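Batch job 17 of 40 flagged for manual review because the log was empty.
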Amino acid sequence: MKRFTVLSLLLAVALMLVPGCSKEGTSQPKGLSAAEKRPAPDISVISLNSVPLTLSELKGKVVLLNFWATWCPPCREEIPSMVKLNSSMVGKPFQMVAVSVDEGGQQAVDSFLKERGFNLPAYTNPDGKAARIYGVTGVPETFIIDRNGIVVKKVIGPLAWDSPEVAAFIEGLMK
């Protein structure tokens, strides 16, 4: 029994050290931040169809705000689970906002998603202001915002967004 406990602990530590990407090539461990339990800063982003979205418009919904890039392997790894989570939330008070930090803008992101067949609610922020406001230091970096506009979780690094635990957490925020 002790062997199982030690192995479980080692696995948990290893999972926390899954790296994310930053433009400079440095990595960050997955984890939570002191950014939690504060009002979500209002930002404006642009959909791939050139429709602007302001975060404050989504008050009343649980928001998964994800910063990512097409060149980031961990971002690419988590996109299929994000697509599945988003599909499972259709008709519920939930909104996924996947903001690309790619310098290539809408065209680069649109091409990337179409080539891979991903149906992701993707947005761009050409001036990079949204990522700066949220203090993003690498990608992927995700903020879960409750229906009252409060950041309740910050996740650094990739995550299996379609896991039952994540779905239950988000469902709980919708109540």
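Reviewer: the log was empty due to a logging misconfiguration, but the result itself is present. Residues 2-174 form a domain with the Glutaredoxin fold (CATH 3.40.30.10). Unflagging and moving on to job 18.
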